[in-house]
Amino acid sequence: MDTTKTHGADTREVSGKMSVWLVCMALVTVASGCGGCQQMIREPFPMDPTGSISTCPGGPTCGISKALMEEVEEPDCPTGNCDPGGSGNARGIYTIEGGNYCFVAMGQQHFCPEAFINTPQGVMLDVRYLTQSGVIRTQVQGRLEANTQRVDVLAITSDRTELAIKYRVQGEQEVKVAKGDDLSKLILRLDTMPMRSGGTGVPILYELRFTAYKPPGREATTDKVHRYKLEYRDVRADTEWAQHCEKDGLGAVVSFLQGERVSGVNASVKLDPNVTTMGCEKGSIVTCLAWGYTPWEPSTGVRDETRDYVFRSCLQAKRAAYFVGKGNTKSYTQSGTTIFKWDQYAYGDGNAVERVEALWSPQGAVCINKENVRKLEAWGQPQDPKMLNTYGVGPCTSKDFTVEGKLFTGIRPEALAKP
C-alpha cells in the first residue's frame, strides 16, 4: 500500500490523529459528558458498581477473547502458491502485494527469509521456499567486514525494533554487540541451502549485511520504528550485492519484531522469546508497528496482552484477510488502498469513520459490511457486493467494540467513488 499524505502527516495508509479523542478521555473522567468532543465518544462511560465512572475506553466492553490468539494451523502450501498468482509477497504479511521478500538464486526468486532463531546450537534463520512446501532452517555464521576474520554469532535479537547482533571474534574472549552503525562491520553467512525442499538441487550460499537506515531529511522516524537496509549476495556465483525488499519501495528496508513468530501464510502468531521476525517496510508486520500497534508498552518495552491482541488484529486488517478464521487465508486488498482505522484503546493514530468496513480480531473479521469492502477487484470484478461470500460473517450493526473485536476499519464519505 502506497504512502499517502493526509492531514499534514505522512502515513503508510491514511489515518486521523487521536489527540482529540485523548482529550475527551481526560474530560470524561471528571464530567458526565465531553462537550464538543461528544461525537467522538458516542456515549458517556457507564458507572461501575461502586458508582465510579468506568475506565474502559471506547465503551462498556472490556477484556479480550484469548481463544482468538491461539495459533491457527498453517495450510500445507508454499507462500507464493497459497494465493493463486502469488509472487512471494507472503499474503501481504512480510511485504506488500506486488512486492517480493525472497532472495534470488540463479536468476529466480527462491528463498524467503522470515525469522532469526536463537538455539543452543547457534543462531538459525528460518527460510520459506517460494514455489514448494517447506521451511528450511539454516545456521548463521559471520566474519568481520574489514579483515574477513571469522566470528561466532551468539544471538540475534531486537529491543522492540532495534536490531542487535551478539558475537565473539574467534580466538578472543570478549563478547561484543553490534547495533546501529556498527552493524555494517559484520557480514553474516548462511549455511548452504538446496534449491528444492527435501535436500535436493544445487546448494546456494548467501552472505548478508545490515546497515542502519534513516529516512532522508529526518534524524529519527516519528513512529520509533528502527529500519535497516539488508543486502545479500550468492557467494558461490559471485553475484553483486542485491537489495532485499527492493520491490517494496521506501528505500527497500526491513524492520524487526522480537518474541513473535508470524506465519507467512495466515499471519497467525506464536510467542517465542528466541525468535526475531524480520519484515519488509510495507508488509503488515512493520506497517502495524509503525501505526502504533505494538505488542509491547512503548514506554517500557514490556509485552502487553491487550496490545498484542490489537497488533494481531491489525495484521489481518491491514491486508484485508477477512476470513482467516474460516479457513480462507486470502488477502482481499490491493496496493494503493486507503485504510481508515481506530481501536478501542487509542494505541494507534486513527479515529472513528463514517462507514464501517469491518471489526477485526486476530482471526479476521468479526463482522463485515459488504458494501464498504476496499476493492471489489480483489474479489474478482465485476462483482455485486451483495453477492460476495462472507463465509457466515455477518454485518456490523453498530460501532461498538466487543470482546472479540478491538479494531475497526472503514471509509469516509470523501473516500467514496464519485458517481
Automatic annotation (TrEMBL):
InterPro entries: ADYC. Pfam families: ADYC. The keyword Transmembrane helix applies. It comes from the Bacteria. Keywords: Membrane, Transmembrane, Transmembrane helix. Residues 208-372 form the ADYC domain. The keyword Transmembrane helix applies. The chain crosses the membrane at residues 20-37. This is ADYC domain-containing protein.
